[in-house]
Amino acid sequence: MKNFKVPHTYVIIFIVVLVAFLGTYLVPAGVYERVQDPKSNRVVVDPDSFQYVEQNPVKFFSFEEPHLFSAIHRGMQGASSIIFFIFIVGGAFAMIQGTGAIDAGIGRLALKVKDKGILIIPIMAFIFALGGSTIGMSEEIIVFVPIGIALARALGYDAIVGTGMIALGAAAGFSAGFANPFTVGVAQAIAEVPLYSGFIFRLIMFIVFLIITSWYVISYALKVKRNPSFSIVADLEEKEDKELNLENLPTFTVRHLLVYLVLLVGFVLIIIGIRKYDWYIQELASIFLMMGIFSSLIGGISPSKSASNFVEGAKSIAFGALVVGVARAILVVMEQGQIIDTIIHSLAIGISSLPSVFAALLMYFVQIILNFFIPSGSGQAATTMPIMAPLADLVGVTRQTAVIAYQLGDGITNSIIPTSAVLMSYLAIARIPYEKWFKWVTPWILMNIGAGAVFLVIASLINLG
Length: 465
Fold this sequence. Notes:
The chain is mainly alpha-helical. It is built from 20 helices and four strands.
């Protein structure tokens, strides 16, 4: 084992693509019918409509049909909006950073909290956990990751800490989802459970997940602070060499203040756009590009230098941006082979014969498995809750418990599954290789899965309604 080396990120993902490809030959093809649900106003699965269909395995190669190797291109086509979003955000942030405002401003903040800088971690985790639990903050965190990393480095930590306090904070809140309209709201509507019922129970989950997250990131941060070589991304930190010299900070000018004003206006527009106008990737990218352009103009950067900064920023994250498209190929292959619904149907049958507490736990682990294939929270709710809700009645589990099994199974593992476009996006922005993130985040995932299992047992025993 000493000589074992974790394969390259692209190798890991392509191995999974190959497994999915083989699955289209070994797993029977099957489909559910999709119907419009009048309560949630979403297209959902008809739980009684499953039927096996003619096997349609993905071909290794074909002159006439999509095949294994074209799945990568089709994956990139399907994820093109995310890929371009990553390039634009990376380039725009490089434009903003080129003004010197980030170094000057964050450096001064770091200097003020230098002795108590560790408190930044639970504060940031709480802020983003609140966002995850109330507005379903997910894609939105991508634009905050570079700022989190700059702050973490200024305090003597690394990119993992900067990413973790934001991404895992949001994930903790998203998993608990005490007021998340995109997961809990949709799932409860489909399961015919009163909207946002079980609020106190979910609030307790929120607190527990936030404590686990804060403790986990702080523990790692303290080790890195004491010994930088402990960093999972020590090689990245050496290349970046961007820790600020807090004893010799650049002068904070009026131009820098105006750049921060541009950022504030940009983030306010993003929040309003998401809440009121259903903005998504295209709109977010356009705002971030505007922030980059206006920051450069106000910061006194020449147009040519601004363009050069944009190109350098986009170039530096090409590796991670393309990973999103490669990972999307996994879903492309499974959808073409029509095996996703078969997997869902088979897992549901396995649950139906179990006692209530065990059935609740198995629902949870089934949702964890399905999250790999259906990483969209609302998409997974629309696909699985029409099956899990009546199944809960059958095995003596409350529908509220079934909703909790879904939301925990969906939320926790979003921070590790390679099919998650959000995960791959913020890792691309942070320039953290997936295999290194996987190594670091796995204990956090296992702790939260364990805590989730305890909550589910409690929910089942008290017949949470």
